[in-house]
Amino acid sequence: MQIPEKNQLDLIIVGGGPIGIACALEAEKNDLNYLILEKGCLVNSLYHYPTNMQFFSTSEKLELDNIPFISDKPKPQKREALEYYRRIATSKNINIHLFEEVSTIVTAENGKHRITSSKTNYEADNVIIATGFYDIPNYIHIPGEELPKVSHYYNDPHFYATQKTIVVGASNSAVDAALEIFRKGGEVTMVVRSPEIGERVKYWVRPDIVNRIKEGSIKAYFNSRLKEIKEDTVTLETPEGEEVLENDFVLLLTGYRPNFEFLKNIGIQLSEDGRKIPQYDEKTMETNIPGIYLAGVICGGVETHKWFIENSRVHAKMILDHISEKEKALPGRTS
Fold first, then answer.
1. Contact 115, 126 (CB under 8 A)
2. How is 67-97 classified by DSSP, letter by letter?
3. Cβ atoms within 10 A of the Cβ of 232, count?
């Protein structure tokens, strides 16, 4: 496969989210010829978060490269974050191709990595995979999950006004959806497998949902699961037995996962303990394939709550420091 010279790079970054952008900023500092490939729009996962989503982190903990993130709230909202990361990408002239999906990465015998995208082919000395986890829902595999009234993503509460809506889950996304839909006039019922609302729910939101359930404004079935979805009803399994409820819409907010098949096809090894944690060096973030690195939430396998923007921004410098040292060690290179 003949690769055009313009497509031969020091570094390809797969994923144009905040961590991918952070890696690009570090690549700029190290004078590396790099390119970000993003299958959707800029910060694609963030763009698809719910309209009114508010971060758990304060704005300074979402900052990249000490570029100030100014918010008029203690916890910034999605729209502010979109503006912040977009301004970084445009003002810093980040080299990024949007709406270009990477399908395969193959490592040749000479150590070069050949990247095939939806538009062309590339060759790079190094690859950083920073693809996040929001694109693939955790399906629950029950009858009716494929019906049009079922969604694994929640956007805006107005859509569910006056409707009987089942919200499955008790994480931040499920709790936010339940509260917002209730306040827009929806009739909300939560179905939760655990005995209570999750402890990791945002501390300023958890008392709200607990009190709305206690007063009966939002109905909740704990220690329960959704068994079947039909056009006009759902069937629940509860501690008291099966129960059939009238229903208009179902939100299956049961979490998301990284694209493990993509990682395995590259050759990255995953742990076999059920957590599917990719193999990487914690000091350099390099995987079992030399020259291929991981950054961000994808490092956590199915434990997607372990890594987020706040604590994985450091991956960018760790990786680029390692790549820079390797580049300096090449014949003909000087420090």
1. no
2. -----SSSS-BHHHHHHHHHHHHHHTT--EE
3. 10
Q: Where does the chain show beta strands of DSSP type E?
A: 8-14, 34-37, 96-97, 102-107, 113-117, 121-129, 136-137, 150-151, 164-168, 187-191, 219-221, 225-229, 233-238, 241-246, 249-252, 256-257, 292-294
Alpha helices in 110-268 (DSSP H): 172-183, 206-215, 260-266
Per-residue DSSP letter, 233: E
Cα dist from 167 to 76, 97, 101, 237, whole Å: 25, 36, 32, 15
Q: Are 11 and 69 in contact (CB under 8 A)?
A: no
Q: What is the pLDDT of residues 248-302, one digit of tens each?
A: 999 999 989 999 999 999 999 999 999 999 999 999 999 999 999 999 999 999 9
Cβ-based neighbours of 54, under 8 Å, separated by 6 or more: 73, 75, 76, 77, 78, 202
Helices 78-91 + 18-29 axis angle, to 10:
20
> How far is it, in rounded angstroms, from Cα 288 to Cα 267?
8
190 Cβ contact partners less than 8 Å away, ≥ 6 residues apart: 166, 167, 168, 169, 170, 174, 178, 213, 218, 219, 220, 221
Give CA separation, 145 vs 63, 201, 209, 217, in Å: 38, 25, 26, 26
Count CA within 13 A, CB hemisphere, residue 18. Answer: 26
What's the pTM value of the predicted model, to 2 decimals? Answer: 0.90
Average per-residue pLDDT in the chain? 94
CB 310: neighbour CB atoms within 10 A? 15
